[in-house]
C-alpha cells in the first residue's frame, strides 16, 4: 500500500514557567471612612452641636466647643472641653446636672442592690437637688455598685457648695470620657455612666 506524504515533524515548545493572568478591570475603591474627629470638624454646625450635647447637656458649652473647630487632635479638643466646662456659669451647671441620670447598675445586679442604690440616691437628690454624677470609666464592672454606693454616702457629708464643686469635676470627667468614646476613633468596652445623657 502506498502511503501518502507525511507531515514534517515539529517540536512542541516548552512552557516558559510563567502563566499569563488576564488583567481584570480595576474596581472602584471605596474611600476610607474619615476619622471621627475629622468628621466632627467638617460637620455642619447643627450636627456638631447635637453630637456635643450627647456628651454634656449645656447648650452654651456645646456652642463654644463647636465654634472653635477644627481641632487638630483629640487632646486639643479635650483641653478646650475642660476650659469651657470650668467656665460654666452656675445656671449652666444646674442645667447640665439636671439632664444627668444615676449611673446604671450591672445587668446581673440583685434586687436588694437596686433598692439600696435608689434609697441612697433619693437621699442625695433631697439634699442637693440634682442627680448624683460619677465618672466610672476606670472602675471594673463588678465594682460599680460598691463604688457608687460608697461615693454617694461619702459625698452626702459635703456641704452644698463643696458638693457642687465635686459634681462639676465629675461632670467634666464624664464629658472627657464621652468625647473620647465618640470622637477618639478607638473602640472601648462600654463604661458605666459614659453613655448619652438623659433627662430625669
Describe what you observe in this structure:
The protein has 200 residues and is mainly α. It has one domain (36-183): UraD-like (Orthogonal Bundle), CATH 1.10.3330. Helix content is 50%, strand content 0%. It has helices at 36-42, 45-53, 59-67, 74-86, 90-98, 111-128, 144-155, 160-183. Helix 2 (45-53) crosses helix 3 (59-67), helix 4 runs antiparallel to helix 8 (160-183) and helix 6 (111-128) packs parallel to helix 7 (144-155). The longest helix has 24 residues, at 160-183. The protein is globular. The termini are far apart. The relative contact order is 0.15. The model is unreliable at 187-192 and 194-200 (pLDDT under 50).
- CA-to-CA gap between the ends? 111 Å
CATH superfamily assignment?
Oxo-4-hydroxy-4-carboxy-5-ureidoimidazoline decarboxylase
Silhouette: globular
- Give average pLDDT, whole number: 83
Using the coordinates above, name the CATH class.
Mainly Alpha
Query: How many strand segments?
Result: 0
Largest sheet report = none
Number of structurally distinct domains? 1
- What is the CATH architecture term? Orthogonal Bundle
**Proportion of residues in helical segments:** 40-55%
- Beta-sheet strand percentage? under 5%
Whole-angstrom Rg:
31 Å
Defining key terms:
UraD-like, 200 residues, mainly alpha, disordered C terminus
Amino acid at each position: 500500500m502506498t502511503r501518502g506524504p507525511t507531515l514534517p515533524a515539529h517540536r512542541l515548545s516548552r512552557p516558559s514557567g510563567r502563566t499569563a493572568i488576564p488583567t481584570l478591570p480595576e474596581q472602584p475603591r471605596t474611600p476610607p471612612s474619615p476619622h471621627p474627629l475629622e468628621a466632627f470638624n467638617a460637620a455642619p454646625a447643627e450636627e456638631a452641636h447635637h453630637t456635643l450635647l450627647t456628651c454634656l447637656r449645656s447648650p452654651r458649652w456645646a456652642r463654644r466647643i463647636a465654634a472653635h473647630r477644627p481641632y487638630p487632635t483629640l487632646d486639643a479638643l479635650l483641653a478646650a472641653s475642660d476650659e469651657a466646662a470650668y467656665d460654666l456659669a452656675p445656671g449652666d451647671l444646674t442645667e447640665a446636672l439636671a439632664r444627668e441620670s444615676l449611673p446604671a447598675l450591672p445587668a446581673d445586679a440583685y434586687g436588694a442592690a437596686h433598692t439600696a442604690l435608689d434609697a441612697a440616691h433619693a437621699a442625695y437628690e433631697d439634699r442637693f437637688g440634682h442627680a448624683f454624677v460619677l465618672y466610672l470609666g476606670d472602675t471594673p464592672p463588678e465594682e460599680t455598685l460598691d463604688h457608687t454606693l460608697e461615693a454617694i454616702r461619702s459625698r452626702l457629708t459635703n456641704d452644698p457648695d463643696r458638693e457642687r464643686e465635686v459634681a462639676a469635676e465629675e461632670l467634666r470627667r464624664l464629658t472627657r470620657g464621652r468625647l473620647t468614646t465618640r470622637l477618639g476613633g478607638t473602640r472601648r468596652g462600654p463604661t458605666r455612666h459614659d453613655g448619652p445623657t438623659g433627662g430625669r
